Structure prediction request, 114 residues.
Amino acid sequence: MEKQYTCPACNSPYGYEMGALICCPECGHEWSINENSESDEDTLLIKDANGNKLENGDDVVIAKDLPVKGAPKPIKAGTKVKNIRLTDGDHNIDCKIPGFGAMALKSEFVKKAN
Prediction:
């Protein structure tokens, strides 16, 4: 009997081996066998627009102009945001933006600052 794997993306119990990868038939996510054994469910894996891993306390730069509801002007590309906090959900970064205050951002619109 083949071993079944739980998908880290959608928690489907129907993951199966396909060569060196494990595939999920429900969501199409693919991962390596080693990745499955090393995964820690308590940690968030959030990546920026360039694919760099983000962590709590990182500094990021806004990658494109972002319109803000109720604000007369957008957040300009190139704005540096310090000391981010990662959260679960659609907008997975909580931060304070100079001139705008507390805000939630999507990680796909930021780049990790050097």
Q: What stands out?
A: The chain is about 5% helix and 30% strand.
